[in-house]
Amino acid sequence: MTLVTETMLRAMLAKGIPNPYSIMRNDKLTPAAKDFLNSRGIRLSVQQQGDSAEDRNGDSGSPRIPRIPVGVSNRHVHLSPEDVERLFGKGYALSPWRELSQKGQYAAEEKVSLFGPKGALHGVRVLGPARGQTQVEISRTDGFLLGIHAPVRLSGDLSGTPGMILEGPEGRIALTEGVIVAKNHVHLSPEEARTFGVGGGDRMMLRTLGDRPVMYCDVIVRIHPSFSLDFHVDTDEANAGHLKTGDAVELAGVNGVLLAGGLRGG
Ligand SMILES: [Zn+2]
């Protein structure tokens, strides 16, 4: 009899957990292990005694987990429709300049200036489309230059964050909140999430493959049918790991548990 635990299943994520997952008739699963399989849509297949050991450990012929492309986000601003008009003029609409990796998102032609108590940054790109609340995403290094010490937050989680002055060609706004250092995250479609064996809100551990190995230990999993696979970091994080847009990282663990071989070189 084997007791299958959640930790054992997580350790198998590197090679991919087969679906259905085979156990022997006498094997037992912990409740957490059952939840783990259920939440990932993996069914159980109970083998009769005497089937091969290969079926039981389940890793024969399972596909290798793909690498995850990196997208580096420079400082940028998301604007509410009202703030677009305040900065660029009445009735103004943003003009898409370049598509971003996530469907429907674009870098706009428009740029603004950011002002903090210690300094200013000019030519900061606006991302579209306009959204509910204005949000400024800067790196920690930008924060030192501006004199604004913003917390690490996921997009949209703005309560209690600092404000700043924004300036466009037609006006200025004094934001009272909305400045963050973006928390790194991975975008995945539901299908891609199944490939990696993760659910929404899980934390991936991702390692770089270049000359300066770095592990990002707490990367939030974000899943949506419109998402495509991309690991989003800011410029400070990218520079620390010698990463640039288009590089790739590898899954080294999930929710604080390293996969077997997670620290081995590429
Ligand atoms: Zn993102």
Automatic annotation (TrEMBL):
Catalytic activity, as annotated: propanoyl-CoA + phosphate = propanoyl phosphate + CoA
Pfam family, one: PTAC
Annotated keywords: Acyltransferase, Metal-binding, Transferase, Zinc
InterPro entries: PTAC (IPR008300)
EC number(s) given by UniProt: 2.3.1.222
Similarity field: Belongs to the PduL family.
Cofactor(s) in the UniProt record: Zn(2+)
This protein's name: Phosphate propanoyltransferase
Chain positions covered by the region annotation Disordered: 46-69
